[in-house]
Design a protein that fits this description.
Layout lengths: L1 H7 L1 H12 L2 H36 L3 H4 L1 H9 L5 H50 L3 H6 L2 H43 L1 H49 L1 H7 L2 H50 L4 H35 L3 H5 L23 E9 L9 E9 L3 E6 L5 H8 L7 E6 L2 E2 L5 H5 L2 E5 L9 H5 L10 H10 L3 H6 L17 H14 L4 E5 L7 H16 L3 E5 L11 E6 L2 E6 L1 H7 L1
Parallel strand pairs: 3-8, 3-9, 6-7, 7-8
Antiparallel strand pairs: 1-2, 1-4, 4-5, 9-10
């Protein structure tokens, strides 16, 4: 029961969420920041309290002599005139406020730096969590959703949940101390404040929280679609222009943009309501004090004292209260992002760097596929059925068959992006398992139809992912020669340092494929998989590639090649024909040329 109540309380449940999201070392930092905030709040309250004696002295100079404490300071410092004492007190107050606000700014800096550091770390851990998921997840999930979850949600969570939570702590302390002090000085004020403050919190929060929550949730849901709407117009430029459908795409983009902006406008308005409301409540307080002193009150002096106390308190209470309300609303509005972060990787270290890139699987004899079968989770028939083949080192093996016959699926199993549901693959009698996937991939090269070109130089694209200073130029040269790119490169304006543009927009399809081959060769691939990589090549390039396949094969590089055109398979030792996930026959090039 108690647990249920605690879980329902927004502050407590958020505190628990944050506690679970933070790593142990971060929890300790959070504690340190909280202590700092506590100190900051106390300094704040002291600052507020220090205005009071100065104000009382200004109202009535006799206080300097009647009040024991003030009198003590007055005589101790040897003041002769009351005016100079008041003047010096005001100067001291000014000095104190300067120091206090410097401290406040420093604390805000620590507080926000802490939250933004957490955001970075959450993104890092979220990235690792996502990157640990399998191939099918990435194939079946919209990239914009992944982008949102890795990049936007962690930052949003830090700014809209963790910072407000810390704000809630610090402002809560200020609020509590002020209320307690005031009620200690004047009990009636306590009653008045409770009567005003409790509804001031509860009413707007209850009225607005669902709205804010709903708006934020819609916003988060819209973002992936919105990003997709922009990106597909950029990537689809040629097709959109050609078909003249600019209108449709722009309208689609504007529609979501307008929805998002309307939500933002509403949120902005809702954000302003607490400030206005609290201003209203302060005025209401003043009205009540007036009414109280006019009808039941005693002297004008009492009215002034009450009003001064109340105004001094309101000066600090007003911003405090609106911040608390805004923080609560922000937290409520972002509550929906917690489940997205819940599966976050729970470790401080990157599990990927442990895997060695230098350790290679020994491959000197053969690769054996035995009875491989595979069905996609959402598929109702075999994508692969009982595939059994044996490939010797240095052989070039071709695959042909209609689209959808399972050729790419078989290659994805060989690449270990998909796992066979029955059967097994062994390399030199060693089974391919999860444990040796890294070593196995270290000898694989993969060139697919839509090879990924990064926005950078040719060099960066061949030595893919290698830090610039660690690039082995001799290996790059060798890879270029083997992929028949040498002549093309020598004619480029900046040679190997030529920028080939985002997604390879400045190069042809054929050149792209050969860069893919060079990339695989740079990594000293012993097994090369070409999945329809040669489909975009012109006849001359195709001849060159076919020759290099022969050349690679002579160098004992084993090649699996899925080809669009039969002629590419000229130098293959064997060609398998696939249909509906099965290998229906095996041919030599001569046999298959006669058949088709
Ligand atoms: P190929 O490369 O020979 O053209 P694929 O290996 O890509 O054929 O596809 C084999 C079968 O698996 C097809 O029927 C295809 O629809 C199905 N398939 C491919 N990828 C997926 C996927 N991610 N989810 C579900 N089914 C898939
Ligand atoms: Mg395919």
């Amino acid at each position: 029961m108690l647990k249920k109540v605690l879980k329902k309380n927004i502050i407590i449940s958020t505190l628990l969420d944050v506690y679970h999201l933070l790593l142990p070392s971060q929890r300790f930092s959070a504690l340190k920041v909280t202590v700092l905030i506590f100190i900051g709040s106390l300094v704040d309250v002291i600052g507020l309290a220090s205005i009071l004696p100065v104000m009382f002295m200004a109202l009535d100079t006799t206080v300097i002599h009647t009040n024991v404490w003030i009198n003590m300071v007055y005589t101790f410092l040897g003041f002769q005139s009351e005016n100079s004492f008041i003047f010096c007190s005001v100067l001291a107050l000014l000095f104190f406020y300067i120091v206090k606000n410097i401290i406040s700014v420093l604390i805000i800096y620590f507080q926000s730096r802490f939250c933004y550091n957490i955001a970075t770390n959450l993104s890092f851990r979220q990235f690792i969590s996502y990157y640990s998921k399998d191939f099918l997840f990435f194939k079946n999930t919209n990239s914009n959703e992944i982008y949102r979850d890795i990049d936007m949600i962690p930052s949003g969570y830090a700014v809209s949940v963790m910072l407000p939570l810390l704000m809630l702590v610090s402002e809560g302390i200020v609020l509590a101390v002020i209320i307690i002090t005031l009620s200690w000085i004047k009990a009636e004020l306590f009653l008045l404040l409770i009567l005003l403050l409790v509804p001031a919190f509860i009413v707007p929060y209850q009225l607005l929280k669902e709205k804010v929550h709903h708006l934020n949730e819609s916003n988060t849901d819209l973002i992936p679609t919105h990003n997709k709407n922009i990106l597909q117009t950029i990537f689809g430029f040629v097709d959109i222009k050609l078909t003249g459908r600019e209108d449709n795409f722009i309208n689609k983009y504007i529609k979501t943009k307008s929805k998002i902006n309307t939500i933002q406008a509403r949120l902005y308005t809702l954000d302003a309501i607490p400030v206005k409301l609290i201003e209203l409540i302060t005025i209401l307080g003043i009205v009540i004090i007036f009414t109280y002193t006019v009808f039941w009150g005693n002297t004008k002096g009492e009215l002034i004292t009450l009003l001064s106390l109340f105004s001094a308190a309101a000066f600090r209470l007003m911003p405090s209260m609106s911040r608390i309300l805004n923080s609560l609303m922000k937290i409520k509005g972002w509550k929906h992002s917690t489940p997205i972060l819940r599966n976050i990787h729970n470790n401080e270290f990157n599990p990927f760097i442990i895997e060695s890139l230098s350790e290679k699987m020994k491959f000197s004899n053969k690769i054996l596929f035995e009875n491989i079968s595979f069905t996609f989770p959402d598929g109702n028939q075999f994508a692969l059925k009982n595939i059994t083949i044996e490939v010797k080192k240095g052989e070039a093996i071709g695959f042909v068959g209609k689209s959808g016959s399972g050729k790419s699926t078989l290659m994805n199993i060989l690449l270990r992006f998909l796992k066979e549901q029955t059967g097994r693959i062994s390399v030199d009698d060693k089974l391919l398992t999860d444990d040796n996937t890294r070593q196995w991939r270290n000898i694989l090269g993969y060139v697919k139809q839509d090879i990924f070109i990064i926005d950078g130089t040719l060099l960066e694209n061949i030595a893919y992912g290698v830090e610039l200073e660690k690039i082995d130029f001799a290996k790059v040269e060798k890879a270029l020669t083997m992929a028949n790119l040498e002549e093309w490169v020598s004619n480029l304006p900046d040679g190997i340092q030529t920028n080939i543009g985002e997604f390879g927009s400045k190069i042809s399809g054929g050149q792209k494929q050969r860069i893919g081959i060079a990339r695989a060769l740079y990594n000293e691939a012993e097994v090369l998989i070409l999945d329809e990589a040669t489909s975009q090549l012109d006849t001359q390039t195709e001849v060159e590639i076919t020759e290099s396949i022969e050349n690679l094969s002579k160098n004992l590089i084993t090649i699996f090649i899925i080809a669009h055109r039969l002629s590419t398979l000229k130098n293959c030792h064997r060609i398998y024909e696939m249909e509906k996930g099965e290998i229906i026959c095996s041919h030599t090039f001569q046999e298959i040329s006669n058949k088709f």
